[in-house]
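Journal club side-thread
Mid-discussion, someone asked how the predicted structure for our own chain would compare to the paper's figures. Pasting it here so we can look after the session.
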Amino acid sequence: MMRVGMGRSRNCEGINRREILRVGGLSLLGLSLPEIWRAQAKSPTPNRDISCIFLWLDGGPSHFETFDPKPNTPDNVRGPYGTIQTSVPGVHFCELLPQLAERMNQFAIIRSMTHSDGSHAPNSMMTGFAGGRTSHGAVVTKMMGGSGDMPPYVHLGKKLGVGGGHLGAVYNPIEVLDPTGGKLALPGFELGADVPAARFQNRSDLLNSIDQMREGMHQSREVEKMDVYYQRAISMLTSPKVREAFDLSKEKETLRDRYGANFFGQSCLMARRLVEAGTRFVQIKWYDGPAWDAWDVHGADLAGMERMEKMLCPRFDHGLTALLDDLKLRGLLDTTLVVAVGEFGRTPKINQYGARDHWPNCFSAFFAGAGIPGGTVVGASDREGGYPANTPVSPLDFAATIYRKLGIDTNTDLRIRPFIGSAAPVAALM
């Protein structure tokens, strides 16, 4: 029997108090699953069981060279590329997105996103507020919890500076830096070398450990209930299902190739695996490679428009259409919201280096799945793509749309007010 004290006393199986606290508390890369599950049990049942894949196009893609070309403007506004007719009559994209153009009838585009922050910061579009720290994924996790026994909130790529925010580190995502390998090392899912995972598979070992930790605590029904959530979290910690969901080697090479042999494509494939297994919110940061693979196309230090043509748009077009096709084939598109957006758009005029600078005043966003009406275009930019001509959509409106599509009642649930204020979802996407 273990004696709990200030030292590193061990029980007869060699498990010390620090290890029990670490495993029992399940600080999985900042995510405390027992606490989330307890909160979820007390919350109203969500109206819909929807997951979200949020594609963060880090660097700010040009709306001119993607979803909102301006063919009838001077060369220094229009840029060097032509337009392509989409599957929706009268709607054109830049010619650099041919596969997405073919599938326009399956998704919606907002052409009138607008805010005032021209810095490379994810805060406005990933929280709803300039300087905000509480991400959409954290809010969804707080309001809805997980689906099944998968981690509810996962981020693929480097940190972005937003996460649990004022909700606390308990709502930070599990972070996977690089999904492109085979079997990933997930440090938050590992036990100490001298603490075999199988040891905690045994119910009596688990309960005995928790009993020792809470010795002397006030015995209440809530404390007793904790056992269930710790059991569930330990089960997830050692679950082959969880590890398999993160293992891209389980997929056929032909499908991996379809997504694209790059960070973005393989992240999209992992996102599909995670939502299929039960993860509620998967967040992908656009390519984590060298600077020339980011959407920040000024052209001063690196070839500007050439990057759009040779790397950025083809990779985006390829990976996103593979994700849409795969979700649809597996019957998951109706229950998965797919969102793609960057921090801002690009200037209406080509700069002296043959590229475009930061422009938050007007840009585009992508929505698909979860009942999004395909072929919808929300709003419009003015003649030169500089400002919304009608139906301006703010970051808070954008956030409210995500929350409503995931089944969070933005009209009557007062818990959501701190995260959207009085903002309303975009009506055309409901």
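Post-session note: The mean pLDDT is 82.
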